[in-house]
TrEMBL record:
It holds the Pfam family Ferrochelatase. It catalyses: Fe-coproporphyrin III + 2 H(+) = coproporphyrin III + Fe(2+); heme b + 2 H(+) = protoporphyrin IX + Fe(2+). Gene3D superfamilies: 3.40.50.1400. Belongs to the ferrochelatase family. The lineage of its organism: Bacteria, Pseudomonadati, Pseudomonadota, Alphaproteobacteria, Hyphomicrobiales. It is found in: Cytoplasm. Pathway: Porphyrin-containing compound metabolism; protoheme biosynthesis; protoheme from protoporphyrin-IX: step 1/1. It comes from Bradyrhizobium cosmicum. This is Ferrochelatase. Catalyzes the ferrous insertion into protoporphyrin IX. It comes from the Bacteria. Keywords: Cytoplasm, Heme biosynthesis, Iron, Lyase, Metal-binding, Porphyrin biosynthesis.
Length: 344
């Protein structure tokens, strides 16, 4: 049974003055780079049944008894290595805010469009930003999960949370959600341009490029998650655009968590294998991340660079995510303008 609607927001403005809200959403990140901050974040994240599907008693015991006692301290050290000390926040927040500001500037000639941003876990929460959009008079909201490839642990959980917030409202705004854009022309072109620009500035020519995507348990895909297929489609489109085959642009999956089998080939094992096979120089691109974060700045640019070099590799370069770059903003702008058709 659904809970009775609670009116938490002011009534919407009437249609002649009504506005359209655009809400960019990324995964989330701790508020502070210390163990308590990381613990709060991990608890919320790992208690989501979209992320860890089996939330049974055994998982709860492992989460509360082991993971939340040990991982926050170790991960806080990793966050400290990449922390934006000027703003005292995680890079994922800094970049998502800037994407939102730049999109707002690009749409500034449409004064009835309001752009904002939120994090699925942590702050600013989806609830607080939807309430803010409604308070500004938005009677239509476009939610934009910033994931090129759909997956239940990322895209679907954004929708779950948006729906949960709306389920508590008597007077709901009309909702749209942007679709995954894993082989959208603007996205593939932006990735290719950013790779070409980055390679042109390197003092060496990498023998090959690794496209590393965030992994997920293999069982999720076996049960129907389309994520792996969309990562493959992105990589194939990128190969076509760059004129590379699968020996020059490899596809791998990173960030394995826990003991189950995740999507393969694993990025870290591939780094080790390539170096041992005699590859001396590589570049790594992370097309599944729309903004640089712990998984790209620490796990790829530091941890995996170290694995490659430790096994005999010599030159390693991590290609930045699209972030708030001109090609990156072109992707977000194209996506948003397409989905706003009929509303603006
Ligand atoms: C445990 C299961 C996890 C699944 C499934 C998963 C999928 C998934 N995640 C991203 C994007 C990001 N994940 C990030 C961090 C992160 N991811 C997991 C676990 C799963 N992710 C954990 C536990 C963490 C936290 C760090 C750690 O403790 O290892 C981040 C970075 C956030 C930041 O603060 O910078 C991103 C981004 C995708 C795209 C994805 C899809 C399959
Ligand atoms: Fe993750
Ligand atoms: Fe990681």
């Amino acid at each position: 049974m659904t809970a009775a609607p609670i009116e938490t927001a002011k009534p919407l403005l009437q249609s002649s003055r009504a506005r359209v809200g655009v809400l960019l959403v990324n995964l989330g990140t701790p508020d502070t780079a210390d163990a308590p901050g990381v613990r709060v974040y991990l608890k919320e994240f790992l208690s989501d049944a979209r992320v860890i599907e089996d939330q049974g008693l055994i998982w709860k015991a492992v989460l509360n008894g082991i993971i939340l006692r040990t991982r926050p301290r170790a991960k806080a050290r990793d966050y400290l290595k990449i922390w934006n000390t000027e703003k005292n926040e995680s890079p994922l927040k800094t970049i998502t805010r800037s994407q939102s500001d730049k999109l707002a500037a690009a749409l500034s000639d449409r004064d009835h469009v309001v752009v904002d941003w939120a994090m699925r876990y942590g702050n600013p929460s989806i609830k607080s930003r939807i309430e803010a959009l409604i308070a500004k008079g938005c009677d239509r909201i476009l939610a934009v999960p910033l994931y090129p490839q759909y997956s239940a642990p990322t895209s679907a959980t954004v929708c779950d949370e948006v729906f949960r917030v709306l389920s508590r409202l008597r007077s709901q705004p009309t909702l749209r959600v942007t679709p995954p854009y894993y082989e959208d022309e603007a996205y593939i072109e932006a990735l290719a341009t950013s790779i070409e620009t980055h390679l042109a500035g390197l003092p060496f020519k990498p023998e090959l490029i690794v496209a590393s995507f965030h992994g997920m348990p293999k069982t999720y895909v076996d049960k129907g998650d389309p994520y792996q297929g969309q990562c493959v489609a992105t990589t194939q489109a990128l190969r076509r655009r760059l004129g590379m085959d699968e020996t020059k642009l490899l596809l791998t999956f990173q960030s394995r968590f826990g003991f189950d089998e995740w999507l393969q080939p694993y990025t870290d094992k591939t780094m080790e294998r390539l170096a041992k096979e005699g590859v001396r120089s590589i570049a790594v691109v992370t097309p599944g991340f729309s903004a640089d974060c712990l998984e790209t700045l620490e796990e790829i640019a530091q941890e995996n660079a170290e694995i490659f070099k430790h096994n005999g590799g010599e030159q390693f370069s991590a290609i930045p995510c699209l972030n708030d770059s001109e090609p990156g903003m072109d992707v977000i702008r194209t996506l948003v303008l397409r989905e706003l058709q009929g509303w603006i």
